[in-house]
# Entry
Amino acid sequence: MTENNPNTELDVNSEQQSINSPTIAVVYHSNYGHTRRVAHSIVSGIVQEGVMARAIDTNELDWDYIDNANMIVFGSAVYLGSVTAEFKQFMDSTSKRWFERAWEGKWAAAFANSGGLSGDKLSVLQQICLFAMQHGMNWTGLPLVPKGYSETDLNRLSSFLGLMTQSDNAPPEQTPPEGDIKTAEWFGMHLAQVVLKG
# Structure
């Protein structure tokens, strides 16, 4: 797994993809860049498996890409035990798609980032999971047994419903720590295999 530049949009070269190749949209909101870094790390893992993926900020939505993706991965920072107001606005803006069942049958997954080790990230993953179930989507979690509890260990926060990461009060180039970023890449690789297996 490789460290990715959080300021670079990752995408598999479209010339390498056939017309029927699966795609994954990673839709996220990030105020300070930490959740953005996690989103791009997930995309890094996805593209390592040869699947096309894009990280899409809720402030710059590409609805065509999202609607045509085989899987949508949702991510938010945790604010007062919930998704951010901006991410909730994105969720609410999908009501017409909910009514038309536009995302029914698609794969869904989620990630949450907070400053605290707990930080009520589980509440956000549950909130997003319920949102995906309302849309009739198929949920996939993080089937990775924790490798330890240090900042270099995979799944150190012991999450299975989705990916949890933790950021200290430092720039996104420094935090979340190595183990969380590597877990994000592992999660991306897993999600790519889910869509490849159909």
